[in-house]
Structures are given as structure tokens and as C-alpha cells.
Amino acid sequence: MSLLLDHPEALHRLRKEIDTNVGYGRLLNDSDLAKLPFLRCVVNETLRLYPTVPLLLPHCSSEDCSVGGYKIPKDTILLVNAWAMHRDPKVWDEPERFKPERFEAIEVEREGFKFVPFGMGRRACPGASMGLRTVSLALGAFVQCFEWEKVVESNMDMNYNSKVIMQKATPLEAMCILRQHADRLLSQL
Ligand code: HEM
């Protein structure tokens, strides 16, 4: 939401996508997600810039192996810096910018090695699909039901307390106004 408030053009595009594909008669649901590619782009781009678990979980090598040309002995604790990978200028064009549309040109399943918000391989997050769906449905419902406005003129404070899990340093404060048709939608909850 913070990134969308700083990028109203993305917020408008997302709202238009939801209005066009879901309409005003019902709240969006799980079966709509396939018709909302820009919503997925927004969620992906947010997870790229602010991966929830920036260093993933510590992994331990069960035998001698090699990673990126480095010899890793058995029983070494290995941390993967997803945050750095997601902002690597050798891999991403304008890595510091919020550009959800970049994911329109990326096949996450194929190029997943550069985008790892859920880790990768056998120890990757088993809840990835559920996590993506939950976040997409919550964000989609916020946008479908409310008009959003900033309460400050400056950019949103995107500082985070980055320890194990990334959390916003200051909670989001914004003005939300129920959209005309939305009382009907919310009464369906
Ligand atoms: C947006 C939501 C979520 C994010 C960003 C996320 C991210 C992650 C990450 C980065 C890891 C570590 C992967 C690695 O070290 O390679 C992980 C592991 C894990 N996640 Fe999630 N997760 C999410 C939602 C969920 C949900 C909904 C569940 C369960 C219902 C779940 C269950 C787990 C479990 C059990 C592991 C440990 C897997 C293992 O060590 O084998 N996660 N998650």
C-alpha cells in the first residue's frame, strides 16, 4: 500500500484492472487472480524490493559442495542475501525503482534464480502459493473497496527494521474512503 501511495499511476492501473475484470457487484476472490496479472506484478515487485525474510532462513551444508565457485565444507551455515540479489544492478534495470511492470516481461518460474522471496529448491517456502494468494486478495480488496490518499506530502517512510523478518519501521498511515459501490461488497463479508 505504501509503494502504491507513492506511485499513484500504478494504483490507478491496478484499480482499473480490478474494476474491469471483477466489476462492482462482488468482492474479488481466489478465482479472479488469474485475470489480474498487474496485481501479481505489484505483489512481486514489492517482494523484490522488500523481501519479507531478507536473508532467507540459515541453511547448513550436509556435505562438501560448491556454491558460485566457492568451496563450502560440510556443516557450514550458509546465508542467502535475497535483499542484495533483488537489488543487484547487474541483474535488474533501475533496481531501486518500484516498477511493477518489469514483471510482465519476466517468467518468474523460469528466471526464479534472481527472484527468491520464498527461497528456492527443496527447502523453499511450502506456503508460497498460499502467501501470494493471501497478500494478493488482501491488497486487491483494499484497492477494490477504498479510495486511498496520503496524509503527508512527502514520500512514504519506507525504512524498515531489518532483523530476521522485514517490518516497516513506522506503520502505514493513510486516508481511506469507501468507494461508492463498496458498502455492498463489504456487506458480503
Ligand atoms: C508472503 C508470505 C510468505 C513469505 C514471504 C514466506 C517466505 C519464506 C522464506 C523466505 C522461507 C525460507 C526459505 C529458504 O530458506 O530457502 C520460508 C520458509 C518456510 N515457510 Fe514461508 N513465507 C510466506 C508464507 C508462508 C505460509 C502461508 C506458510 C504456511 C502456511 C509458510 C511456511 C513456511 C515453512 C514451514 C518454511 C520452512 C521450510 C523448510 O525449512 O523446509 N510460509 N518462507
Describe the structure.
The chain is of the alpha+beta class and 189 residues long. It has one domain: Cytochrome P450 (Cytochrome p450), CATH 1.10.630.10. 32% of the residues lie in helices and 14% in strands. The chain has helices at residues 2-6, 8-21, 37-49, 82-86, 128-145, 182-186; strands spanning 59-60, 65-67, 70-72, 77-78, 146-150, 160-162, 166-168, 174-178. The strands form four sheets. Strands 1-4 form a two-stranded antiparallel ribbon. Strand 6 and strand 7 form a beta hairpin. The longest helix is centred in the C-terminal third of the chain and has 18 residues, at 128-145. The radius of gyration is 19 Å and the shape is elongated. Bound molecules: protoporphyrin IX containing FE. Protoporphyrin IX containing FE (HEM) binds next to helix 5.
Strand content: 5-15%
Helical region count?
6
Oligomer classification: single chain
CATH superfamily: Cytochrome P450
* CATH architecture identity: Orthogonal Bundle
Uncertain spans: none
The run of helices and strands is HHHEEEEHHEEEEH
Radius of gyration over alpha carbons? 19 Å
Q: Using DSSP, what is the number of strands? A: 8
Q: Which word captures the global form?
A: elongated
**What are the distinct ligands in this entry?**
protoporphyrin IX containing FE
Main sheet specs: 2 strands, antiparallel
Helix content: 25-40%
By CATH, the topology is Cytochrome p450
User: Would you state the CATH class?
Assistant: Mainly Alpha
Number of domains: 1
Protein name: Cytochrome
Subcellular location: Membrane
Family: Belongs to the cytochrome P450 family.
Main location: membrane
